[in-house]
Amino acid sequence: MAGALEYYLWVNDSTGAGKITQWYTAAQAGCASGTGTCSVTPPTGLAAGAGMWWIRTWNLIGLGPWSPGLSFTVTPPAAATQIAPSGTIGTNMPTYTWNAVA
After folding, report:
1. DSSP 8-state secondary structure symbol assigned to residue 61
2. What pLDDT, on the 0 to 100 scale, is given for residue 17?
3. How many CA atoms lie within 13 A of 48 on its CB side?
4. Are 68 and 60 in contact (CB under 8 A)?
């Protein structure tokens, strides 16, 4: 929207509607000049699973239309692979070892 002063971010995660509903100024979104890419990182964590988000603009003339929804999936990390201890061990205070997960 030409001259957008604020942007309204709406995010649904797998738990339902309205997980994030927040206005951001163009300056907060890093696009106060009206050009380039806007972005924000809200402090709200999302649940694993399917999600969707929308953005709406505003200026002194009024509200712009909602963007089309854009879907995404939040994927938790894979299971770690255990290395030790395994089988019969000779201590009651073992060290537990596993492979890191990227």
Report:
1. T
2. 85
3. 4
4. no
Sequence-distant (6+) residues with CB within 8 A of 67 are: 54, 55, 56
* Residue 22, token pair as written in the block: 């927040």
pLDDT tens for residues 8-65? Answer: 999 999 998 899 999 999 999 999 888 889 999 999 999 999 999 999 999 999 999 9
Contact assessment for residue 7 and residue 26, using Cβ atoms and an 8 Å cutoff: yes
What is the Cβ-side half-sphere exposure of residue 99, based on CA atoms within 13 angstroms?
Answer: 9
Task: List 8's β-bridge partners, or say none.
Answer: 23, 56
d(CA 86, CA 55): 51
Q: Which residue bears the tokens 């809200």?
A: 42
Q: What is the pTM of this model?
A: 0.79
State how far the Cα of 4 lies from the Cα of 56, in Å rounded to an integer: 10
Tell me how far apart the terminal alpha carbons of the chain are, to the nearest angstrom.
39
